[in-house]
Amino acid sequence: MAHLIFEHVSIRYPIYNARAQSLRHQFMRIATGGKIAAEAGQTVAVTALDDVSFELKSGDSIGLIGHNGAGKSTLLRTMAGIYTPDSGRVIREGRTATVLEIGSGMDPELSGYENILRMGMLMGIPLKEMRTKIPDIEEFTELGDFLSLPVRTYSSGMTMRLMFAVATSGQPEILLVDEMFGTGDAGFQEKAKARMRDLIANAEIFVFASHDHKLLGELCDRVFELSHGKVIVATDFNKKEN
Q1: What pLDDT is stored for residue 18 in this prediction?
Q2: Which of 69, 84, 132, 203 could potentially form a cystine with 33 if both were Cys, beta carbons 3.0 to 4.6 Å apart?
């Protein structure tokens, strides 16, 4: 059974720069999700996640909302184990798949087919098992002969198709997605939504960060609203919308 627990998790990014004070003022003039604080000497630290606690289990589908820089992407990467907390702890049980950043986990010099196997390896899927998933990925992506070409020749939409198809080719127990539906044509977006609904129906954990509240309402049951690294709302999505 999938399980994801955050216990008082904080992540801070120290910025080491002799011009830290001027850098601090520069950050203050732009939208940023973290809290900026001066430390000893000339170090500036951005708190990207601030004492975040929650528990997710099988059947949970969570939408993440908040302005740019609010901490959504950092939260997803911490859920995935890409980032390690500076304090607190993360307990994650279940095979995890991610669609976080276009091209993430891919080698642009390798072909689409080679990257399918590469991403499968990064997900912990045995090579033999991953090879059996290739026909499904071919059909879903509709990339045809492009799968034999280096990924660097792909458009961003084609790259996202391949990433999404690989991430959802099996039955991940935890699926983490960051703003993927803004990329690609309308037909692919509908295919991706249908595939996502199939995954969610199988009672796995799904976390999706997006600015599209309508889409979040279609795919998610609950919403976490982030502001300056804190989860300030954790409630039923319909209640949030009402």
Answers
A1: 46
A2: 69
Give yes or no for a contact between 113 and 126, defined as CB atoms under 8 angstroms apart.
no
Q: How many CB atoms lie within 10 A of CB 233?
A: 15
d(C-alpha 224, C-alpha 230), whole Å: 10
Closest CA to 60 of 87, 94, 84: 94
Could you count the other beta carbons within 10 Å of the beta carbon of residue 171? 12
**85-94: pLDDT as tens digits:** 999 999 999 9
Contact 172, 204 (CB under 8 A): yes
CA gap 174, 96 in Å, rounded? 5
Q: How would you list the strands of the sheet with 3-15, edge to edge?
A: 35-38, 44-57, 3-15, 87-93
Q: Does residue 227 carry a pLDDT above 60?
A: yes
Q: What is the Cα–Cα distance from 136 to 129, expressed in whole angstroms?
A: 12
Angle between helices 186-201 and 156-167 (to 10 degrees): 20
Domains in the chain with CATH codes: 3-241 (3.40.50.300)
Q: Residue 29 and residue 166: Cα distance in Å, rounded?
A: 39
User: Reduced to 3 states, what is the DSSP secondary structure of residue 121?
Assistant: helix
Report whether 64 contacts 33 (CB < 8 A): no
- As given in the structure block, the two tokens for residue 12 are 């801070």
Rg of the chain over Cα atoms, rounded to whole angstroms, equals: 19
In this predicted structure, what is the pLDDT of residue 64? 95
Lookup: tokens for 206: 């799904």
> Is the distance from CB of 118 to CB of 107 less than 8 angstroms?
yes
How far apart are alpha carbons 40 and 187 in whole angstroms?
A: 53
